[in-house]
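My convention is simple: the sequence line spells out the residues, with the fold written below as integer tokens. I include a record here:
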Amino acid sequence: MKKRMICAVLVGLVFGLDFGVAQQETEYLKWLQQEEQKLQQYKDERDAAFTNFLKQEWEKMQAMAGLAPDLKPKPVKIPAYEPPVVPPTKPEPTAETVVPDITVPPPPVPEVKPAPQVEPEAGQVVDLHYFNQDYRISLLGDFQIRPITAVDEDQISNFWSDMSLTEYDATLKHTNRLRNNLALNDWGYILLLKSLASRLFDRSPEQDLFVWFMLNKDGYRVKTGYYNNSVYLLFPSKTVIYGVPYFTLQGQRYYILPLDAKQTPSKTLYTYQGDYPGADKPIELTISQIPNLGNRLAKRTLRVLVDDEIKTLSFEYNQSLVDFFRNYPQTDLEVYFDAQISSIANYSLLTSLKPIVEGRSERQAVDILLHLVQTGFDYKTDDQQFGREKFFFPEETLYYPFSDCEDRSILFAYLVRNLLNLPVIGLDYPGHVATAVRFTDPQTGDRVKHNGVDYLICDPTYINAESGICMPQLKDVQPRIVALR
């Protein structure tokens, strides 16, 4: 009898527990559904308000001319150093640090081309071709958007309204997943959205408006404008962007960045002052990770004089990365000095140069690298080569046939930091860019101070000039210091 009573009590407790758990789950699901409904209602109200805002708050504005990184032109002919007939006696430092053994990372593993990515949800499958790689994204539902027949505020407002009714949340999830897989920064992500837009829409206005919509939904403070039946995107940036027109709205510069290299930015636009609620991020142009765009190997051969002997050095680099940087928005020098390079180029440079500099004094090693950059690359200004100013990332200097002062300085700084592990700063003079290196031991020569420490001037454009030799016309000029991370 007692056993039956105990069993009955236990069954009751278990039933009670199961009932309680089930009731809690039901209440949780009910609460979750209510919260999702509230969120959807908030999103619907926010989109409805912004749709109405777009129908009425546009104004005609004149853009400011693109900013120039340097108003003083660069020399067309590269300067060369002429050493004195009787060189001055240099006092030897009391101790001269030798370059230690250089650790070269293992060679990069050949990358297997990723399989096309298809998300598990049912929907429209879109094939993307993005910087020589193919991908697939599965979208939920179709993007049924009223076609834009004539670009104006009403039709842009209609586009926003139509897009807000699509399954854009799922699309954002998929594009961000692909973005993370490819290690894309903001500019790479913008181009990814443009690539997707080109598969969804036939015409440029709808493509650019799709990018504008998705970026705002992803929290980016991006505006759009229109003029003469064309759509333009306006981007605020954490760093200055040079060479493109811009507007100042709400105290913030908005740069007109064309997503198609063929598009010419208009200096007159109709645009709006407000922002989509919650969209407050400017774009970030730093290269903290190298985009994973596949490995397309290319080679560059240089001849350099070392110890009175001509050495032929061959370097590999990633052509896909060069393609990515081809139309990159020109921004602050710090972005280029701090940028990473591909594992291919890094391994190739370190492997080729390690036996040349290892075991020498720091200054001897720096002078070898300085001479390599001074004489291994042909000189042309950007205006001569491109008809515009274009700073190179290190990988680009290995690709293009010509380079100028800032390109050589950026590459030289990379070599000194990664081969010799010495601190480097950039020197931004009017019309010229050079570098300075902090040695372990005191050194003689021309120098600058940074944070109270001496850095010896090293000019990768002043042909045959050793470390510690500044161009005569710049000796009394105080450069802007470009501090590296």
In short: DSSP finds twelve helices and 17 strands in the chain. The chain has two domains: 60-65+114-272, 297-482. Residues 6-11 have pLDDT under 50 and may be disordered.
